[in-house]
Write a structure and sequence with these properties.
Layout: H1 2-14, H2 20-25, H3 52-58, H4 77-93, H5 99-123, H6 129-175, H7 177-188, H8 195-206, H9 209-219, H10 230-247, H11 251-254, H12 261-287, H13 292-327
Length: 330
Amino acid sequence: MSLVLLKNLLFSKRSSGPSRKAIQTAPINKATTPPLNFENHQGTSWIETTSSVDLEAQGISDGKSSMATESPKQPPASTSSRLAAFEKFKAFRTFRPTPRMISDAIIGISDGMTVPFALTAGLSSLGTTRIVVLGGVAELVAGMISMGVGGALGARAESEGYRAKVSETMKLVTRSSAEAISLVHDILRPYGFDLAQRDTIANSLMQSTDRMVDYLMRFHHQERQPDPSRPLACGFTIGLGYAFGGLIPLIPYFCVERHQVWRALWISVGIMIFALFVFGFFKTVLLAEKDQDKSTRKACLGGLEMVAIGGGAAAIAVGVVHGINSNIPA
C-alpha cells in the first residue's frame, strides 16, 4: 500500500501542468492576442502609468528640460554697485564745461576780483586790518549769495521766457497756418529756395504741429530750449566764482599784524595786478579767434584791460573812503 501511495504522488506532480516541450511547441493564437499600439495609445502602457511627478523629477515634464525653465541668474549686488560706480566715474572723466558755464564763471570771478578788492583797498585807509578783514568777509559772503541768487533767477526767467515764446508760437501755428507758412518762406528765401521748394518744405512741416513749432523756434526766434538744470548750475557757478575771486585780495590781511594794514594793501595790490592780468589774458584766449597772433595780442590787451578796471575801482574806493574819513570828526 505504501508503494501505491508513493506512485500516485509521483505521477500527480508530473501531470499538474503542461510539460516544457508542450509549452515550447504550442501555437500562438494571434487573433486573441491584442497588438501593442504605441501611436494612438489605446491600451495601457508603461508610458501612461508613469506619473507626472516622476517626469518632473527627471526634468523632462511636457517635453522640456528643467534647464529651460530656470530663471536667468542675476549679478550679485556687489557687482551691480561696482558697475554703477564705474559708470559715474566714466561720466566724470568725460565731463566738459559748456560755454554757458564758462561765461558764468567769468562773470563771478570778474566781479569777485574787482568789488572786494576795491572794498578792502578803501577800508585800508582806516588803519587796521581787523576792519578790513571783517568788512571784506561780510561783503564776500553777501556778494556770493546775491550773485548766485541773481544768476539763478536770471536763468529761471530765461526758461520762463522760452516757454512763453513756445506757447505763443503754438497758438500762431494752430490758429493761422498761413502766417506760419509765410514765416517759413521768409526763412528759406535768402538761401535760394524757389517757390515750389518752399511750399514743399512748409507743407511737410505743417503735417506736425510740434515739428513746425520747433522749426520756428530754432530758425525764426533763434532760441533753443534751456537746460532744466540751468538755474541751479548758473547760481552755483557764479557764486563760487565770486567767492574764489573775492578771497584773493583778502589773503594778505590774514598774514600781517593789525597795524601793518598798508603793507598788506601793497601786497594785495601786487597780487591783484598779477591775478587780474592772468584772468583777463585767459578769458580773452577762451573767447578769441583761433588765429595765434591775433589771439595773443588780444589776450594781452584783455589782461591789461582787467588790470585797469580793477585798479581804477580800487583807487576810486581808496580816495572816497579816505576823503570821507578825513572830513568826519572823531
